[in-house]
Structures are given as C-alpha cells and as structure tokens.
Write a structure and sequence with these properties.
Mean pLDDT: 95
Radius of gyration: 19 Å
Order of helices and strands: EEEEEHEEEEE
Number of strands: 10
Strand order of the largest sheet: 1-4-8-6
CATH architecture: Distorted Sandwich
Largest sheet: 4 strands, antiparallel
Strand content: 35-45%
Number of domains: 1
CATH class: Mainly Beta
Structural class: mainly beta
CATH superfamily: Deoxyuridine triphosphatase (dUTPase)
Shape: globular
Number of helices: 1
C-alpha cells in the first residue's frame, strides 16, 4: 500500500531499519537541541506530513532503546495519525527518568507503524449479553 509523504525536515525519509521491522523510525526536526527535564513533556516536530488511504492509520509508538536507556516515551501511546489529518506529525515525548535528557536534531525519537482500521456501526441496546468475565477488569484475572 502506498502512503504519500511530504518531508519538510532536514533529514532523510523514514525507513524500515531491518527487513523484519514493523515500524519506521522518525526523527526530531529541531532548530536547536532541547532538554527535557524529569517528568516534562513536549511536542517534538518531525517535518513530516502524510496522506493515506482511509483504511489505515499511522500509529506513533515509543522506541524501546530510548525508553530503556533514557526514560523517554511517547505520552499518548500509541498516538494516532488519522487518514484525513494533513498537518505535521508531532510526537509528544515525556521524560520519565530522574535526569534531564538532551534531544538533538535528527535523533530518532519514535517509530511509526501503519495499521488497518476497522469501521463499525454502533447499535444502542438497553442490556448487554452476559459473559464469563462479566465486568471484571483492572487485574481481576490475577497476577500469576
């Protein structure tokens, strides 16, 4: 499937880093490096603009290495870029570490994964059918 992309950044287009990669790494497009303090969040611009078929969405997800090594993650994981959005792709990063983290221009800050979207029709009813689980949630099935 083709996705149209406009790249207004100073960096190469995103690409799959290996043949088995599900996501393409995307880079910070900054005028100057920024520092994220502990628990600070910030919208980081990428310079990328997308046009895609309505049957898919682009999910913005954290990079595992940044999460483990620096404590940086995408705050609204996964962030969704809808098919009809034409603005610049931004990444909401948060620093969950106890130290300030420097983010430099061109640094790979997140990954984008394209996923199918299933549209549904909602049918309003007064009562739902019972299930074995019922309303149990939030750890109701145990820890082990």
């Amino acid at each position: 499937m083709q996705v149209k992309i406009t790249n207004k950044s100073k960096h190469d287009l995103p690409k799959y880093e290996t043949s088995g990669s599900s996501g393409m790494d995307i880079r910070a497009n900054l005028e100057a490096a920024i520092t994220l303090q502990p628990m600070q969040r910030m919208l980081i611009k990428t310079g990328l603009f997308l046009e895609m078929d309505p049957s898919i969405e682009c999910q913005i997800r954290p990079r595992s290495g940044l999460a483990l090594k620096k404590g940086l993650t995408v705050l609204n994981t996964p962030g969704t870029v809808d098919a009809d959005y034409r603005g610049e792709v931004g990444v909401i990063l948060i620093n969950l570490s106890e130290e300030a983290v420097l983010i430099e221009d061109g640094e790979r800050i997140a990954q984008m994964v394209f996923c199918p979207v299933q549209k549904v029709n909602l049918t309003e009813v007064d009562v739902l059918n019972d299930s074995a689980r019922g309303a149990g949630g939030f750890g109701s099935t145990g820890n082990k």
